[in-house]
């Protein structure tokens, strides 16, 4: 091995371990499902960017907007295309667009960004149309999708730039949109286009300061309102802060709202919102960091709108951090701040920029930014055009609230390291005990969906499911709660998946420990079944969500020991696959606990005994030990009876001559292995599925060894710094391979990232290098058939890492 590649491997390993050690308390999904067979996929040749979606339960279709195409897909099976409409840009438009300096094949196309219901048969559609947005009407009748050709101006309703985030909402005949109104994308507006009075936001910086719009929805607050309040449209975005004194621009997350009945002002704020108020949204990590940035929001509606909750995904604003968070905000908390909170006001400071501080003076009546309610009506103000100038001027100059909005529980519901979270939907599930749980489905930037619940403060990720093979970002996520389906779109395809598939859990213990509110064990049919499909008779069903208590499960047959033959001097591998990423394997040899050392390697798929000798014969037990809430659950996964073979000796079971050299040789042996007659009946069936992919030993027990790990990490980091110095010195002189690795690695990561992200977050490829992504780390390695268990979370050490470690080990002995 030449020096530099080795050094780069070592450094990658150290980086991985650093992140693993620092973040071991953040969500690891209990289960990882890499290639689910219950997905339905839709994609069409030469069509990309499936990132706009409208579910029409009423018509039984999913309307899907992509680049230059709109499809109507069967809502029960999106692989079935019912109809499609193509809407390409004209050559002339494309030429115009390229003259203005945009790329013909990328930006000068028509990206469908808006699909809204108008009435039973009609849908409003807008596309970027080669940086010249236009809108049109689509009809869906007799299974046919048609574009009417009544084209309308799309400026302000749809972005010019296909990579720019934006949000819009149709309320009755009014289209609310938050986007840029110019070609350069530099003039943000919040617009209401309607027959009555079209309104927009003011261009003042205090209204919108380089915003990135994310989400919008309406809350019907006029329902049973004691003070005759109005419905409100809530908008979520991030923008540059005015409230921090900082040497550089800091972004913050915001929620803003406007009233549905707003008609603008008479003299002040004519044709502009008189009810635009905004406040900071806080969703903070336990450790100090720059404010997290909102990426997507879902409104969990409740019959009583006061109990509705906004779920938001937040990601770091600097590429240095890797932790995403989910926070929930109650509509009542948001309302209280807008309706009764203090405002911020500008004070001029001689030396530097203006400062924004709490306004302590008198607030005019009617309250600035309030909707027209009974208080205003009593004062003779029946609509916003009758509001006094004093109120209007106040809200024009001070739309920002002083208080920030804190999450419901005071802290995030979920923290997750690794690939960033991109989209969220939330389902409300009634469990067997009739309690309701909010299950979050969260898309990631590498094509996974995380299914998570917060059980009384405990963050729990039930499973992660890979839905996009190419590991692209999830660009859109939609839920049909009534059908129990989730729809996710990315650049290359769109998928449909069930909210749960309980049949994946084959026995009672697995079913209960999954702690999936959709699933319960039915003791009559002996199946893990969907709670909805069960005739509710809790007598014959087992579910224990908060405790994960399996004591109600019927007793299982004890495991039979499997015979294994050992050949002295060879290595012996005993498979033991755990059913949970959260579990650890505890091995026992004749009732003595085995510690990993230079004889025993304990790794994710089993135990490796190096240079076995006669004295290694005996009974081996593999226990899966898992922490569930506050209790520890242990169960035996495998039993092996290891003994010398009877004469004449059978072929060796598993042979690895020396670790570190013979992955390929090992694979050759696998074949013989599964067919040797040295195994008992149980093994031949079990071993095939249990046989691990040819991995090298790993330390599964990272958690328990964190402290010693941290010390070694510190030492290794120092070493790494020195080594890095050496690398760069070499590079400066010789352009060695290592930097090539750095480049390709960075590029690969860049490509994987959604363009939205790159724009929104300014993440650079250098910082990406620091991100622990096992996919990328391993992709540079010959042993690409390795199946790593947790997406992006390096709580298992991979092959190259161990090679690196081995290398240090040898060198340091010199
Ligand atoms: C659940 O998964 C099993 C296999 O894991 C599959 O055969 C079955 O069709 C899936 N069920 C649903 C409802 O998709
Ligand atoms: C559309 O998809 C293509 C192919 O994956 C991708 O290169 C491009 O960046 C996407 N465009 C947008 C606007 O997301
Ligand atoms: C879904 O539709 C596809 C394409 O029409 C078809 O091949 C497949 O069998 C359908 N799946 C189900 C479960 O109906
Ligand atoms: C739906 O809206 C379109 C466009 O506004 C209109 O032309 C059509 O008549 C409406 N259809 C129904 C059934 O209301
Ligand atoms: C407001 O409406 C009430 C009742 O609808 C009416 O009596 C009153 O004159 C109106 N006030 C103004 C200023 O228009
Ligand atoms: C694995 O565990 C053993 C024993 O605890 C320890 O000596 C070794 O350094 C660990 N290896 C790694 C890669 O952490
Ligand atoms: C294997 O073990 C035997 C004795 O148990 C020892 O003599 C031999 O040197 C060991 N081989 C290796 C490669 O460690």
Automatic annotation (TrEMBL):
Keywords, sorted A to Z: Disulfide bond, Glycoprotein, Immunoglobulin domain, Membrane, Signal, Transmembrane, Transmembrane helix
Predominant subcellular localization, coarse grouping: membrane
Family to which the UniProt record says this protein belongs: Belongs to the semaphorin family.
Cellular component terms (Gene Ontology): extracellular space; plasma membrane
Keyword Disulfide bond: yes
Signal peptide residues on this chain, from the entry's feature table: 1-19
Name listed for the protein in its UniProt record: Sema domain-containing protein
One Pfam entry name: ig
